[in-house]
Structure prediction request, 852 residues.
Amino acid sequence: MKVFSFQLDVMSIQTFELSGLLDECDLALLNVSISCFDLEQDNLFIGTTNGQVIQFSIATNSRKSAVFSTEHLATTKLPVSSRISNLFCSLSISAIICVCDEQLYCLQSNSLKIVSSLSGRAKSISCMSINQNPVNDDTIGVEFLIGTSRKMIQLFHLSLDYKLSLIKQVSVSEIPICIAVDSWVAIWASSGAYYITDMKNGTSSMLFPYQKGSIVEPFVKRIGVGEFILNGPNALGVFANSQGVSQKPPLTWSPTTFATAFSHPYVLALDDEFLTVHSVLDQIQKQSIPSPGWKHLENTNGKVVVGSSRDLLVALLLTQQQQIKGLLDEKRIDEALAVLDNYYQTNSAKNEEDFFAFKRKTEQKCAFFKLKNREFSEARRLFLSSDLQIETLIGMWPSCSKTSSRFKCKEINIDELCAQNASHFNQYADFYISIIMQYIRSDSVYSETLDACAEILINLYCQTDSVKLFELIDQNFFLPFNGDLVVALLKENKQWHSAALHLNKIFNEKVSLQIWMDLVDNKIEDPLFPGIHFLTDPISKFQTTRVVLDALHWLCEKGEDKLALPLAIERANLVDLDSSFHPSKMVTEFDQHSDFVLRFLEALYKKCDYNVNLILFKRFHRKVHEIKNEQFTDEISYRDRFRTFLRGSPSLNLQEALSYFANCSCCEEETLILLRRLGLHEKALSLILKDNGVTEFESALDYCEKVQDESGEKLYESLLDRLNNKTLCLELIKRHGNKISPSKTLQYIPDDFKLKDASAHVTKALKCRANASSLLSLRQYATLQVAQDYKAKELEMIKTLGPICIDDNSTCCVCNGPFFESAFVRLPGFNNATSSEPQIVHVTCMTDSTTN
Prediction:
């Protein structure tokens, strides 16, 4: 037998190779024409146009699997000499089922003997199809579906002992002329429409109609579980499933197509001129083969057989490796990958090493092609899936690494691709960075390629995204790399800030600090450097004491005491780890930076001993005098801080500190603070009242109010003793008489004041002091006041009313009793009484009256 080869179209891909199966010479002696056929294992069964069934044996050349040889074995003549329209063979039950003259016949496949008991059991058959997905898969046998001219669809089961049983019968609206079945679902065509029938429920519905003449010949073929393909109008191959028309896009084929067969992932279509091959993956025609007089096309038991009435050929699907190579040669990358994926899913040897080697090689070729077309996501996936060697990856972009010259990549040169279009540089850079990073994170980079990867990443990031580079350095990404190389590359690309940060990460603090100092001093420039405030964090983490001290000196020289101070304080709090930052040593170290030292000690004096507190006191004292003499604008600020220190210092020797103010007239407030802390309140009042004016008086009162809880109320009496102004004394008594003893209060009542004029001040003091210890004084004073008042009123009554005469008829106006004693009381309150008699009372009655 010959192997046929055909010239392909320009854009066609060879997916099938034709090999002769049965040629005209084999049938010449038998003088028959082929009407149908079936291929089962090594047997070929042919139905003829004159009612004969012929059996051939098929042998394959042991050296060439595409070369077949045939041998005639047997021939059987059916009772009628009509055309056999359908023929199916099942070696599982050793039966051949065929339809001739609209009747069903069954033959034994091993002898071609007709099973007479079945002959004519089914009649008026218009079409037939084997159910390859039987509804009763638990029994041995064959299920087949027939359509009849009586508008019936019947599902039969033929058992191993050649018993035919009807499973289901459904009436339909038209005569089926072609049919296909999958389990309970049947799709069939009439002369004007396609229908779908659910055999289980007995329901039918139209899929779509078609005009007569729009289709040369309607057909429907099962191509998978629940999947069918139909010859639709407008030269379309329409897909359908068990629910109806499928969502798959239709195939475009010839309007004269009259037969089809399916071999994944291809649909073969036969028209009057060509056998065309279409991919169901992208609905594109892949191959076109001339079809001289061919009338038959079937996929029978995994082999696609095509031919005329005089000969048959097998369309052998090329090995998937051959197809893939052909697709790659034609740059049909997506199709090559789809075939490769199917190859992996269906190949029985997919676990073998040679298959994986082919798979990796194919994916890499596809990846290089995708990369050239800037399909970066897919290229990245394929490179990673194919385990591309890191050496090859490095060699793709020679200019990115000086060390990459040792690594070669023949398939692609990104430098050349970028030279063709410079605008693509960033896209290739992003891809290259992402895949290099993926290799690094997956530990696919070994020591010999580590430096090259670092060089590639830094060079590309410097050109595309220096901010991302800085973030990676900050995240310690480059720590596993050669530190000197990383720093050299960063400096070469003028990434000074990133270089300093990496130096700091690898504990080269002195050099990193110097770079940052140069950036602040504008000796070098880097737009990523945020400014001097950034340095507080790295300096706080420096491990070398001398470097930290140098950094603090530099910050102070730059006038950035506010940045240096928290750093120094933080270190001082770790004095157990580093005694260099003890306050006593810091005073010596930073003596030339007086303000810095002052604030440093100011933050720590509460934790320090007497010596440190005394140092801070002396510095404040000297600073206040300097400010006073030079009249600086920040005098108030320094004084407030000094006073806060004097109030809160726990270790300061107060007596010693007070001695510094002995002859200091400008530090009265500070002196008062110390006097108050020492409890020398009288001295404090003397200092305040040195001028004895109203202002000083008010200041003294404020002082007394602040310290009264410490000194008690006696302090107001001390204040009273120190006042030389009588008016101020009376003012003090008026405001704070309740805090001054009555006896002390009475001492400061002026001699020329009448008691009634001063009674308001005195009364207030006495009432507020009315307690058990002063009750006697209160009564004595009250009696004196009343006596004075009555004396004055008595003199007035004598002048106005004259003398009083008492006789035996005089009576007491209280008890109405007579007077037996010479002592009596004249009531001034009754001087306006209507009676003409004087109003007099007994002394005892007067006492009782007053008491009650």
Notes: The first strand starts at residue 3 and ends at 4. DSSP finds 30 helices and 31 strands in the chain. The longest helix spans residues 775-801.
